[in-house]
Amino acid sequence: MSLEAEMALVEAILFLEPEPIDAKTIASIGDLSRDLVLEVISRLQRKYDAAESGIEIVDIAGGFLLSPKVSLWPHLKRRYGKKSETNLSRAALETLSIVAYSQPITRGEIESIRGVSADGMIRLLMSKKLIREVGRQDSPGKPVQYGTTKEFLHSFRLSSIADLPKLDEVDRERFELDGQ
Is the four-CA dihedral 110, 90, 62, 163 of positive or negative sign? Predict the structure, then answer.
């Protein structure tokens, strides 16, 4: 198979997949080596970087997804945004930010930072699959710890949690617990 044919095959696989797909799975589907898939994806990314292209390949949590360019979303979001997606309230975004920047974190720690009960926000964020239980703290009562999910990374177009914007000193202090 020629490189052009392999590029077309990988492009078709990405087009047909509704969720991020890792290089190993693409290789298995296309009967290609993982290294070749990564090379082809790199070539496709350069192709899509051209100004006249409306799509790009994004790396989300170790998987690849064919997606409209970010600059086009204001024109596309109303019709093509997720059907079940609803905007998060300020309180939900604040809670999600605390979890994202402080994970793993307990409900009590979230409440200590926010200064209000977090039960409703935690339930909401878990129902939207943006956060999940990631373990239990080794302290009396063994409280549940929460962290973000792959859906969180997907929703915010992040490859990993390390891609979150860096916090300035004032914001960093907001996300710290008293005594830490």
Answer: negative
